[in-house]
Amino acid sequence: MRDLLLGAAQAVRDVVVRHRLAGAERSVHGDSPGGDAQFDVDRVAERALWDHLTAHAGTPVAVYTEDHGLRTTGPDPRTVLVVDPIDGTRPTSAGFEMGTVSIAAAPFGGAPPTVGDVTAAHVLELYSGAWMYADDTLPEPVRYHGYPGRLPRLSGNRDLTRMFWSLELNGHPMRLMTDAYGHLVDASANTGGVFVFSSASFSITRIVTGQLDAYVDIGNRILRDHPGTEADFRRAGRGNILHLFPYDIAASVYLARRAGVTVTDAYGASLDPMPLLAVDPASQRSCIAASTPELHEALLDAIRWDLTHQPTTGGDR
């Protein structure tokens, strides 16, 4: 499994690097089944992944990707790979370093698999080539390549004002996000750091490397708590609900938990029940990940879940 996951991710990186050097990364070619815009680089990455898996998988595997949904390389697969060939399409298209290949593996053939069923995971950075891998058989938390020093290297920070953290804005109405955690941005932007990487797997794995203290994507909880905000979310998502999909976080959540990161949904509940093979709004999730349990609890307590502006109609105020 390790060789298959590492080989597939490297095949994607090879073709994405060539595509980037050719200077064609910013054309949009429609939407994924979940409604997210798909760029030309996404199409190249999807093709490279499928070509590699059909040539090297050996025994058949099921493959679930952002653009193509569920396919199999042959009959009666026993494993499903849940893959985002590029998590962080926008930074990748801009030539920044935040794009990754994210692959999680789980048993296939019985009940629909969930995040809690993942048995192996791999995240490869497209820009640097650095990677993390783990599976249930490893004695150590993660194996890795290309990072300075040893991993995991978690921050011990418990202070919200000194927090280095990332948040998500794609498909998230800025007004609602400001109501929920604008005060935390104000408190930490100078004595800590606030970042928008547009890649959940990059953000979560930065906690494993010690570069970040926390990652926050709370859109799904805001919508669940305040159904009247749906029009706002659909406007920001061009008619779609764009919260965390399984291929966004399945691999990085597995790696982070093995590394000792505290990671849950925005209610503080386990992400284990999240379906791996569904992208409808009911199957999407929120996420709060932190380097210490104390910081995680402080975030849950400090975010303003009631919102300053009670539900909107989707129009301007």
CATH homolog superfamily of the largest domain = Fructose-1,6-Bisphosphatase, subunit A, domain 1
Mean pLDDT: 92
Please indicate the count of domains: 2
Largest sheet: 7 strands, mixed
Q: What is the helix fraction of residues, given as a range?
A: 25-40%
Spatial separation of the terminal alpha carbons: 52 Å
What would the principal axes of the Cα set say about the shape? Answer: globular
Strand order of the largest sheet: 4-3-5-6-7-8-9
The amount of beta strand, in percent, is 15-25%
Offer a concise description of the structure.
33% of the residues lie in helices and 20% in strands.
Describe this entry's structure for a reader.
- Residues 310-317 have low confidence and may be disordered.
- The chain has helices at 2-21, 40-56, 89-93, 174-188, 200-209, 219-225, 230-236, 246-259, 293-302; strands at residues 28-31, 37-39, 62-65, 69-72, 79-87, 100-107, 120-125, 131-135, 143-145, 164-167, 193-195, 214-217, 262-264, 287-290.
- The protein is α+β, with helices and mostly antiparallel strands.
- It has nine helices and 14 strands.
- It has two domains: 2-145, Fructose-1,6-Bisphosphatase, Chain A, domain 1 (2-Layer Sandwich), CATH 3.30.540; 160-302, D-Maltodextrin-Binding Protein, domain 2, CATH 3.40.190.
- A seven-stranded mixed β-sheet has the order 4-3-5-6-7-8-9, with helices on both faces. A five-stranded mixed β-sheet has the order 11-10-12-14-13, sandwiched between helices. The protein has a two-stranded antiparallel sheet with strand order 1-2.
